[in-house]
Predict the 3D structure of the following.
Amino acid sequence: MTDRIVADAGTIRTGLRQTEGALDEALMETTTLMQAMLRARQNPDIAPHAGHKSIIRLTQAMHQQVQAATNLFRVHDEMSEIGVAYGVLDHERSTPLSGFSPSPVHSEHEAA
């Protein structure tokens, strides 16, 4: 294995973790926004249905964020499989699979 493979693997590992964290942070911020919108609507001077279309759209955005996280988990799983294949990871499952990939990595030792 070359030093470049190891360096690339480290860069990818760091990037995946940072991106996963950023998606979680974005979802938390969106949730905070949703709470603020719902609290504002509870004001007796505001109509109960005020902002409902915006709440629907924000819910759709939250769903898209969760879908993006799911796709990123799949990317992480696939990259972990590549890491095992190229010997970058110490052993299989050193980065636990998310459960979103169609087929988990199986070693010859597990098959025996």
Observations:
- The helical segments are 3-41, 52-85, 108-111.
- Residues 3-111 form one domain.
- Confidence is low (pLDDT under 50) at residues 103-112.
- DSSP finds three helices and no strands in the chain.
